[in-house]
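This protein record is not my work; I was only asked to verify it. The record follows directly below this note.
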Amino acid sequence: MGYHKAGFEVTGIDLKHGKRYPFTYIKGDVMDYIHDVDFLRSFDVIHASPPCQTFSATKHLRNAQGKGTDKQDLVEPVRFALLAADVPYVIENVIGAPLLNPVMLCGSAFGLKVRRHRLFESSRSLVGTKCLHKEQGKPVGIYGSMRDEIPNGGHTAKTMQEANQAMGIEWMIWGELVESIPPMYTKFIGEQLCATPF
C-alpha cells in the first residue's frame, strides 16, 4: 500500500495472504521467480522481504508458543539474484538480519503506536528515520498472540481495532499483521526511489 501511495503500480508474489491483498497478486513461491531475469526486469523496482524468523528477536517467543521458525535464510540468495538481474531493489528485514549498509525505520517517527524497527538495504541511496520513543510512549506490540502481557510493561494489541490502528493497516487480520510492516515505511522508501531517475 505504501508503494502504491508513493505512485507505483504494485504486483505482489506470496504463497499466502492473497485474499485481502488489494493489488495484482501472484500466488506462488517467489524462489520460483527469482532467477527469471526477464520477469525481474519487467519491474522498475523490486521490494523483497525474505523470511525474518531466523533473525527476529521474537524467535524464542515463537518457539515457546510452539510456532517454531522457518529456519530459512534467504537474504543472500535473493540479493544475489537481484544483483544478477541488475534491477533496482530494496530488501527489508529485521534488526540482526545480514543486510548491507541498511537504513532503519521506526514507527515512532511516523506517529504510529508500534516501533517495529526494520532495516532496508537498497541498490539506491536511502535515508532512514530517527526513533521518537520518548514522544511515542509505551508502544503496542503486534507479534506473537493478541492480549499478551510483556515483562517490564506493555502488551500486545488487545483488539483487532487497536492492532490495525497501531500499524496503520485496516484490511489485515492478526496473522497477516504480525508479518507486515506499516505502509508508511514503504511510502517513505517509495518516495525516495521516485526522486531518483530509473
Notes: The longest helix spans residues 183-194. The mean pLDDT is 89. The radius of gyration is 17 Å. The longest strand covers residues 89-94.
